[in-house]
Amino acid sequence: MEQMTFHELTDKLTALYTERKYPEALELVQLNAGQFPEQLARTTFWQMCLLSLCNRSRDVIAVFQQGLEAGLWWHEELFLDPDLNVVRDLPEFKRLIAVSQEKYEGMQRQVERDYTVLLSEPTSSGLYPLLITLHGRNGNKEVDLSRWELARQRGWLVLSAQSTQPVFQGAYHWDNPERGLADLRFYYDQVSGQYRIDPQRVVIAGFSQGSGMAIYTALTGNLPVCGFIGIGTWWADANQLGMQRKQVRGYFITGEKDHTLDRAREIQEVLRRNKVEFAEEVHADLGHEFSSDFGTSFDQAIDFILEERE
Predict the structure, then answer these.
(1) pLDDT, the chain, mean
(2) Does the structure show a pLDDT above 90 at 192?
């Protein structure tokens, strides 16, 4: 039997979870977690949540303890997840959270900046159009990289940026936007120092919270981008996006079944009030994910952003 990819495991788990088939979801994770050792912190947390949903509080504690003994750690905010309500008030669970948080705070000081570049063939002018891509919350620079390969095939130099704000091993967020801006400026300076970037074709894109960070970056003018692409867009406070630079164009790819859709609408209203030009592509059956024909979506987004700019 061919081994499933981590994306496939995530999709199957999400489907079972949505249907509230928690025992089946737990079995799926337990059977397949070993195939993805780099995702151990994530799959261990999944097991804790699913065990809690199955009312197996003692097993939640045991898995938590084993994870800590294996060197894992998680930011304490993760344990506010309602899925853990069964164990939330247990003294031993609270003690383990404190241990985890102490480990987290120690490791946070050791996080280094990291990014990946997908290099395309240079254009006839010798300049590269640059696409900066941002992962979602609890993601990393590799998680959506395969999605952006199509941009490289279309001649874009892709800079996949990773936040330096960890949630657990291999997972990061953009909660502190100023720190995020500093990271992105560093990455941009590194890449523009190595390659000749076309200043008229620099676009920033992201998924989920990374989409919100992309919009925030574009509007602050911290990077010389001409537009942004938002997929499953989410940001904690739409009114704190900043509006220093409005001469950018945006393109949203949204799904009517996406649980973040209301937040995307709030963001769009803020942009509309501030006369930031954008377009939207809506998919009736799409959830919080990339569209199945993302290549077409990407082409339409780029055409809109670069219209009358080439």
Answers:
(1) 93
(2) yes
What is the longest distance spanned by two Cα atoms in the chain?
A: 65
Q: What is the pLDDT of residue 160?
A: 98
Residue 296, amino acid:
T
Spatial neighbors of 117 by CB under 8 A, at least 6 apart, are 157, 158, 159, 160, 191
Residue 1 reports pLDDT greater than 70: no
Q: Is the pTM of this model over 0.85?
A: yes
CB 219 within 8 A of CB 276: yes
Q: What pLDDT, in 10s, does the model give residues 198-215?
A: 999 999 999 999 999 999
Question: CA–CA separation, 300 vs 297, rounded Å?
Answer: 5
- Name residues whose C-beta falls within 8 Å of residue 81's C-beta, 6 or more positions apart in sequence: 49
Pick from 252, 249, 258: nearest CA to 285: 258
Q: Edge-to-edge strands of the sheet including 227-231?
A: 114-118, 157-162, 128-134, 197-207, 227-231, 249-255, 277-283
Q: Is 58 exposed, middle or buried (0-12, 13-18, 19+ CB in 10 A)?
A: exposed
Cα separation of 303 and 112, whole Å? 35
Domains of the chain: 6-108 (1.25.40), 114-306 (3.40.50.1820)
